[in-house]
């Protein structure tokens, strides 16, 4: 599950149902956190036929050290910035080749935005930001958080720049279903109990995939993480920067690490917060994330049972007992969805309630909101609170309009990695393993990984390690109880990178920068402003 926007970069979301949101952001920070959290499973290697041996090195071998003449028009185009949105923000567009292997086959336009440096100190150039997803809008993240919420000393020295990746939001978005169709898709039972429900789930996944193929056939083959990283190198050149400086959260860490693997000598100061591990296959990613959400739920439960207003409470209740009560509530919703006060007549189903709980695991600041939502649903038969959390995760607004987050998320994930499962039967065989990892979330996360099974475009990436030999120090940030990007992923990525430096936050929530730890913020600010990475083994609370 990856990703939403928050004061720090956003999260990563689970494949089909567990995604980021932005409809009713309680705070900029929570939104950013959710933005980073989209259906998670991602990889980013071997685009356009390169990397056939599953390594970024193979893709690198296909890239000349100097810009090929066929790409020169893209690297020499002029950007025309114009005022847009809030005061101080500027927007532009740039062209990139649809297919880097065949530049003459056509262009696509990518949307850009920036907030110019505000201070009097020596300018440090541009700082690209990406909130994650995949599918999260970097421009929305810039306008709602990074451009106004990043530390003043960072905003004083850097132009904060965002590009919506190809296929996302303002950059020729992947299109699949309309709002009503998305409502129906998100309400499908994600934990089927019998053959009829399994057929309905498979049918929904097939319909979603077919719609994406129908409406975005040409684009679906060219939204890989490798291609998005190559787009960032074009932007770096157009901004006049010799090296790319970058802060990426959740899936944004994979995008940044992929850039470093492709262009190590053009890599400047990179912060990878809430790191993903590119060496894992899709099934392992889902399984690790399942365990991560169980860990986060235990932390929520331990906090909840101490409070008088905890709707899952009981005398001397344990986290396991809290989980049992929540599962019982979910089963009741499976049989009888409850009213949610929705203008479109939607009711709170088991699937929507599950996503509502998942959304609250990304940030401790939403735990109170979750307690209130559960109390209303369980004691007052009012599902409005949980439905609002679910809508935030899916980025659905009050008019029934969805951003293309879920559509872009699936398009990138399904191109970057082979599917986790080849059939519903394989999911059923894996259910015990997922249920062991998380009795609460395991079944839903296992079934949610079925979406890429029916994707109309074959995956071109494979699990791979990223070394980025020759790159400057790269800071990898891991949170010990991160639900969406488990801490061990940050450890793994920091060891893969030849210049990786792990910075640990001992705490809860998805991502760490800008989320209240003065220790984390100070370490990252020092690195961004002076190029000095954190000391080896540095840990913060």
Mean pLDDT: 90
Helical stretch tally: 20
CATH topology: Rossmann fold
What is the terminal separation in angstroms?
24 Å
Describe the secondary-structure layout.
Blueprint: E1 2-3, H1 28-35, E2 36-37, H2 56-61, H3 72-75, E3 82-83, E4 89-97, E5 107-115, E6 126-130, H4 138-149, H5 152-157, E7 159-163, H6 179-187, H7 195-215, H8 217-220, H9 225-238, E8 244-249, H10 251-262, E9 267-273, H11 282-304, H12 319-335, E10 338-339, E11 347-348, H13 350-360, H14 367-380, H15 384-394, H16 405-416, H17 424-437, H18 442-448, E12 474-481, H19 487-496, E13 500-508, H20 518-530, E14 539-540
Parallel strand pairs: 6-7, 6-8, 8-9, 9-12, 12-13, 13-14
Antiparallel strand pairs: 1-2, 3-4, 4-5, 5-7, 10-11
Helix pairs in contact: 9-10, 11-12, 12-13, 13-15, 14-15, 17-18
């Amino acid at each position: 599950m990856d990703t939403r926007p928050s004061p720090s970069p956003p999260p990563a979301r689970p494949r089909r149902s567990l995604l980021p949101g932005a409809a009713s952001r309680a705070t900029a920070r929570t939104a950013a956190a959710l933005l980073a959290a989209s259906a998670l499973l991602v990889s980013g290697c071997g685009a356009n036929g390169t990397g056939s041996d599953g390594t970024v090195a193979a893709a690198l071998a296909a890239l000349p050290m100097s810009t090929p003449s066929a790409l020169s028009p893209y690297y020499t185009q002029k950007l025309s910035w114009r005022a847009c949105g809030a005061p101080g923000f500027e927007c532009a567009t740039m062209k990139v080749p649809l297919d880097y292997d065949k530049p003459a086959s056509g262009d696509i336009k990518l949307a850009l935005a920036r907030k110019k440096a505000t201070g009097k100190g020596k300018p440090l150039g541009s700082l690209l930001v990406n909130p994650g997803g995949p599918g999260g809008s970097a421009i929305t993240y810039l306008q709602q958080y990074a451009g106004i919420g990043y530390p003043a000393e960072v905003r004083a020295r850097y132009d904060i720049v965002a590009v919506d990746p190809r296929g996302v939001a303002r950059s020729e978005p992947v299109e699949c279903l309309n709002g009503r169709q998305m409502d129906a898709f998100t309400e499908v039972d994600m934990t089927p109990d019998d053959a009829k429900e399994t057929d309905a789930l498979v049918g929904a996944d097939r319909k979603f995939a077919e719609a994406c193929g129908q409406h975005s056939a040409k684009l679906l083959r060219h939204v890989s993480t490798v291609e998005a990283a190559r787009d960032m190198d074009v932007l770096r050149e157009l901004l006049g920067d010799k090296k790319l400086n970058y802060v990426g959260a959740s899936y944004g860490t994979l995008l940044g690490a992929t850039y470093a693997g492709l262009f190590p000598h053009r890599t400047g100061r990179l912060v990878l917060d809430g790191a993903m591990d590119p060496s894992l296959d899709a099934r392992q990613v889902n399984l690790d994330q399942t365990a991560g959400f169980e860990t986060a739920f235990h932390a929520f439960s331990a906090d909840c049972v101490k409070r008088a207003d905890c709707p899952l409470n009981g005398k001397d209740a344990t986290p396991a007992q809290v989980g049992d009560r929540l599962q019982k509530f979910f089963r009741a919703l499976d049989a009888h969805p409850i009213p949610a006060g929705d203008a479109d007549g939607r009711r709170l189903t088991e699937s929507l309630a599950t996503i509502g709980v998942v959304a609250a695991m990304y940030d401790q600041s939403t735990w109170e909101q979750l307690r209130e939502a559960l109390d209303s649903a369980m004691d007052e038969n009012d599902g409005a609170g949980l439905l609002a959390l679910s809508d935030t995760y899916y980025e659905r607004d009050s008019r029934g309009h969805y951003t293309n987050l879920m559509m872009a998320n699936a398009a990138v994930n399904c191109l970057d990695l082979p599917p986790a499962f080849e059939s519903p039967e394989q999911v059923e065989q894996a259910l015990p393993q997922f249920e062991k990892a998380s009795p609460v979330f395991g079944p839903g996360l296992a079934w949610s990984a079925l979406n890429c099974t029916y994707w109309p475009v074959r995956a071109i990436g494979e699990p791979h390690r990223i070394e980025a030999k020759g790159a400057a120090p790269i800071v990898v940030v891991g949170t010990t109880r991160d639900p969406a990007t488990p801490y061990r992923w940050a450890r793994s990525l920091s060891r893969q990178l030849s210049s990786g430096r792990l910075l640990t936050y001992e705490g809860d929530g998805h991502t760490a920068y800008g989320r209240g730890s003065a220790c984390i913020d100070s370490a990252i600010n020092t690195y961004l402003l002076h190029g000095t990475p954190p000391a080896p083994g540095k840990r913060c609370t």
